[in-house]
Design brief:
The protein has 306 residues and is α/β, with parallel strands linked by helices. It is 46% helix and 19% strand. The protein folds into two domains: 176 residues, Rossmann fold; 122 residues, N-(1-d-carboxylethyl)-l-norvaline Dehydrogenase, domain 2, CATH 1.10.1040. It is built from eleven helices and twelve strands. The chain has an eight-stranded mixed beta sheet, with helices on both faces. The radius of gyration is 19 Å and the shape is globular.
Length: 306
Amino acid sequence: MKIAVVGAGAMGSLFGAMLAEAGNKVWLYDVWADHVQAVNKDGLTIEQGGKTRTLRMEATTAPEQIGQAELVLIFVKSTQTAAAADSARTLAGPDGIVLTLQNGMGNANLLAEGMDAERVLAGTTSHGATMLGPGRIRHAGVGATTIGAWAATEPGRRRAGQISDFFTRSGIESKSVADVRSLLWSKLLINIGINAITALTAIKNGQLLDLEITRKLSRMAVEEAIQIAGKMNITVRDDAVDHVYAVAEATAANRSSMGQDVDNQRQTEIETINGYIVREAERLGVPVPVNETLTALVQTMEYHYK
């Protein structure tokens, strides 16, 4: 299969590499010229479990070099989705499938604008990756990937199943689900409970569990979001808070993606995570003081980057 990865950061490069190693024709597209040049010159180097491997891949800063792809994977930061959507639609052409595995809410809606929504898939992944430098990533964690159709139609669900099976055959353990919105909310709750807190305190995911006061802060943020989900008739798991803690423990040595953004003084995805809850709460007339505070603090930190 010919695949275009839009957003070749740590996660985009990782998925591109895994799919290329399975024998697919993969292109990485990113605006970071140093990374693209390094991949083209020396290949993509992947560290995992104390071992290193290098894979030759095609990378570009010009999407027109790629041509039409059968599958377009979106891994840009959610703040860049609107800009990436035009490239995704062009790369997918009239028949290609677009799949977002991004953090945050609202990405699939943006991608579905101007194209057949039945060709838009959304999902989550438990794989973890860290960018070490141009042309170098670390595969920091392995887990399942789950995919669903954004348009709840039979053709959409069929495409989700086909891509899920294709990923599994390519060595990326995957499954498809009927209710992708609940799936995205499950991932959103994890990010709400971990990302902003770790970004603001410079701790790793597992350290969120060290103090009861930090666990309480995480719990309150998640419980506010659960209340908003209920108002929106979104079904979430009964053990959502415990699940956040379990993920923090399972990824104890990892620095959250928002934490990595703050470390590198990059724009974060706070607007589509805790900020999303704040906006929906305002619309619904429900107070969410913890998420409002976390959002304000991260935005303040971003504004005052040196």
